[in-house]
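User: Working on a comparison across species. This one is Peptidase from Pseudidiomarina gelatinasegens. Can you predict its structure so I can line it up against the others?
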Amino acid sequence: MTDQQYPIGTPGKPWGAEEKQQWLAAQEAKRSYFEDVVSQINTLHDRFDVEQYGALDYSNNTFPLFLVKTRQWDSTKPNILVTGGVHGYETSGVHGALAFVKQQAEHYSQWFNILVAPCISPWGYETINRWNPFAIDPNRSFKQDSPAGECAAIMDYLARHNLEFLMHIDLHETTDTDNSEFRPALAARDGTVNTNWNIPDGFYTVGNSEQPTPDFQKAIIDSVRKVTHIAPADENGKLIGAPIEQEGVIHYAGKQLGLCMGLTDAPYVSTTEVYPDSDNASPAECIDAQVAAVTGAIDYLRKHK
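Assistant: Here's the predicted structure for Peptidase from Pseudidiomarina gelatinasegens:
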């Protein structure tokens, strides 16, 4: 189905500076990054190394950017990266990353060095947005000379520390607002025509078509199905318009598209997608599903790598 006309811009004409400013003026904070996220990070100092890797100066506010690392970083152990909140509005991505740190990271640090960046896009978290204030989607901007400060900050940190990773898992959601707001806004911004996709009811993953890892993706799905339901394919055998590779798994080209999954050269990568608007899932269940995805991925590596 196609969407209604978006209230900003002229159909068929990409936005200029005036339209982007009009869009920005309509955004407002609906929740607090400092109360919801930073407060939780501040409780972790006695168990983990917490580093500020950058800051974003937006909308008369400065958002410090934090990552959490397991202690006794050991160069003989493989490194694992967990990211959340690349799209700030995807709540369980942020809180799933934090829950994994609090519940499981110390246990897995026996075998791995673990680095977690729980909220890449704090302005997006506060305003419940996919974009940053410049109408840029961070999850299409993990590229050299990125136009998104959210991406540049974490990319610069990893480059400075010359970190290599065995695994990177990026925690996301697919929500009803993808069709009601964010895809129509994207089409309006770019001067194109939007065709909405069917929103999958359940959990699925996006693997990297540039380096497929079917057994790894299956391990994530099998771990999550113990917590919540796996999204079925639509009537065309697809999820969000992409062909099904196996139950609950589709592929995107990570580096080519500038996705966060392409942030590193890790051979094992996955983007999780939880459906928080399901009648059959609670907010707590969505967070638990994200934790199960991370632990299922790590357990696979322990057994096979």
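For your comparison, note: The two ends are 44 Å apart (CA to CA).

User: Helpful, thanks.
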